[in-house]
Design brief:
By secondary structure, the protein is of the alpha+beta class. Helices cover 31% and strands 19% of the residues. The strands form 3 sheets. Strands 4-5-6-7-8-10-9 form a 7-stranded mixed barrel. Strands 1-2-3 form a 3-stranded antiparallel beta sheet. Helix 1 crosses helix 2 and helix 8 crosses helix 9.
Length: 398
Amino acid sequence: MFALALGHQLFAAEGSSLYGEAVWGTVWGDPIVRPESGLLRKRLGVKRLANVVALSLITAVWTSSGRSEPATHNAELFPGPGASALTLRLELPLRDVLRGRSKARDDEEPVTHGAKLEVGDQQLELTVSRRGKSRQTHCSFPPLWLDFKKKTTAHSPFAGQNKLKLVTHCKNAYEKRGFLAAEMLAYELLNLFTERSFRTRAVQMVYVDSSSDEERTHWGFLIEHKKQLAARLEGSASKLNTVARSDLIADYSALVAVHQYLIGNTDFSFTHGPPDDNCCHNVVPITLSEKEPPNVLPVPYDFDASGLVNPPYAAPVASLSISKVTQRLYRGYCDHNDQALTFVAEIVQQKQRVMQHIQAFDTLPNLPVQRITRFVDKFYKVAESADRTQSRLVAKCR
């Protein structure tokens, strides 16, 4: 199979993605970079463009040798964007969960509740607990941890899983407005750009209160666990206090920074966490096992505070130069500007594929397609202009 690298992803000619590493090349299933692209040539320069083409050809040969993503038991549950939703029936003390707190006190372990999960004709034993920070305050139905007993998960889609995040609808009105669908789309857009990203799976949840047999049906989605992600990427997700900027893999960090700009997200940090938590804020640092520094991938998650999602509670921090999350602000590093420009040029070439993915998204209901299409199109008005890219990305770097 003939494919070319984008950052750390390989795109097959028919549009599927394979896993690769080490080479920053191009481009989205085309056999070579199109040198006639005026925008790409203007941004990269002739010499640098020639280097990109050369790397692409090298990568194509390397890919044809058959190297692909390491197989894991994660693939059944998280096969990738577009997978059909699972229907799950979760029996739990629902009223206790919704009325409770994530912890009795900040220094205590999370409050857990015994539960049973039905998937098909199988019943899995697990515990559930509330999770999240801002959503604990804003959501009448908070996000949950699902903590499985591994011995009960064999021969189910959850085989090998231990603990998973469930992103819930938050509020009934929010579900109807498509905030949940928009956040899942944010994950899938990053999946389009790189395999080095969290995978998700849509679920239709039937919540059954074990004390009253009351049932509620809502949509949600599961997020791949960070340890499963690390195993898939042949790295580790160790707890770190901080990450040195010099340890970040430049091309991947630039890719993520541009994705965050695309979705209008500033609620993250590649190098630091909140005062009371480990590094990093809404980012998991994955250290690649067989690579010397720079060897850290800052893999992002939690996109609810982005302009793409734009729930009523989302607001940028006061220290930033924007007043609402639908205003974009680039938060990438100046050291990574060359890599960011390379990726911007490539994402411009892939505009049709991105827009088609938005239009075709039906994994969760109620996606506000028109609003999101307009929002993403505003990104492209910047990305397609060398002058706007210079003033709104390059000049805004940190």
